Amino acid sequence: MSKIKVGLVQMSCVREHQPNLDKAIAGIRDAAAKGAQIVCLQELFTSLYFCDVEDYENFKLAEQIPGPSTDALSKVAKELGVVIIASLFEKRTEGLYHNTTAVLDADGSYLGKYRKMHIPDDPAYYEKFYFTPGDLGYKVFKTKFATIGVLICWDQWYPEAARITSLMGAEILFYPTAIGWATAQDEATNQEQYNAWQTMQRAHAVSNGVHVVSVNRVGLEQKGAMKFWGGSFVSNPFGKLEYLASHDDEENAVVEIDLKKTDFYRTHWPFLRDRRIDSYQPITKRYIDGD
Questions:
Q1: What whole-number distance in Å separates Cα of residue 62 and Cα of residue 91?
Q2: Which of 155, 184, 222, 265 gets the highest tally of CB atoms within 10 A of its CB?
Q3: pLDDT tens digits for range 58-92
Q4: Who's near 132: CB < 8 A, 6+ residues apart?
Q5: pLDDT reading at 1 higher than 80
Q6: What whole-number distance in Å separates Cα of residue 20 and Cα of residue 26?
Q7: Residue tagged active-site, from 5, 23, 113, 116
Q8: In angstroms, what CA-CA distances link 43 with 2, 68, 87, 215, 285?
Q9: What is the pLDDT of residue 224?
């Protein structure tokens, strides 16, 4: 299958779990009605972005994967015949938690999960308090419609993650995301940050010759101190934007992509051909001190 349709559900969230799950399912249904075959939800869509504070009560938001949310989404995936990419707060066992994305195939089967590898720790993004770094490595999932790679938010800034996942055979890179602006910032800083975020991911598309789909949340959270900037998008394998969402609105978008473009761009811009893998050993060092 060369041409497929991907769905992006960009939404705001509330504190309670069920209304968020219901809204996400409504978004999936809307995208499926528009022809979507693979639908990606944003990062940690079943709650507000709780990592703005270090609060032990927030661990109660976590769940098993597979578990209640994947069970509910599996039924929807099977009913609609769509692949669902669902980012959830995973309780692996007592005292061990991950930021995890589950993939459900179009027949409702659970294909597996990816655990976020890069964990940030910044003001209002205290993820290291909650999440153990992923230990499953990078993953690809062979769905009914395409072989997909899934990375999560902070992973977006690391070319190594995109490269490895692409080399494993991913035809599309999906990035569920939760990122925004501090409302106290000036507009110039806001735009600089958003542009860097988008540019970085479009660069992953170019350097690896694959489509990139990034799905972010919108809305004011953290008592109005953080505005999640939306701006979800789809990039073709040469960095061209095929879709760009607003910074403010909830949107259920469906975008047709042509997987044959990977071969076209990789042939005409043969970055993979010209890689000097014999020279890359230093990349595994933390820093090249010259000692």
A1: 5
A2: 155
A3: 999 999 999 999 999 999 999 999 999 999 999 99
A4: 92, 96, 97, 98, 119
A5: no
A6: 10
A7: 116
A8: 28, 17, 5, 8, 30
A9: 82
Per-residue pLDDT reduced to its tens digit, 130-177: 999 999 999 999 999 999 999 999 999 999 999 999 999 999 999 999
Pick the catalytic residue: 23, 139, 153, 227? 153
Do the Cβ atoms of 28 and 82 come closer than 8 Å? yes
Q: What b-and-e string marks burial along 42-60, b requiring 16 or more CB atoms within 10 Å of the CB? A: bbbbbbbbbbbeeeeebee
Q: Does domain 3-272 have CATH number 1.10.287.130?
A: no
What is the Rg, in whole angstroms, of the alpha carbon atoms belonging to the chain? 18
3-state DSSP of 88-121: EEEEEECCEEEEEEEEECCCCCEEEEEECCCCCC
List the domain boundaries for the chain: 3-272
As a whole number, mean pLDDT of residues 19-24 equals: 98
- Torsional sign, CA 145, 151, 157, 159: negative
- Concerning whether 116 is annotated as a catalytic residue, the answer is yes
- Dump pLDDT digits (tens) for 199-253: 999 999 999 999 999 999 999 998 888 999 999 999 999 999 999 999 999 999 9
CA distance 111 to 147: 12
Is residue 260 part of the annotated active site? The answer reads no
Which listed residue (13, 40, 43, 91) is catalytic? 43
Residues 6 or more apart whose CB falls under 8 angstroms from that of 215 comprise: 8, 9, 10, 40, 41, 42, 174, 175, 176, 177, 232
pTM over 0.85: yes
C-alpha dihedral sign at 128, 129, 134, 140? negative
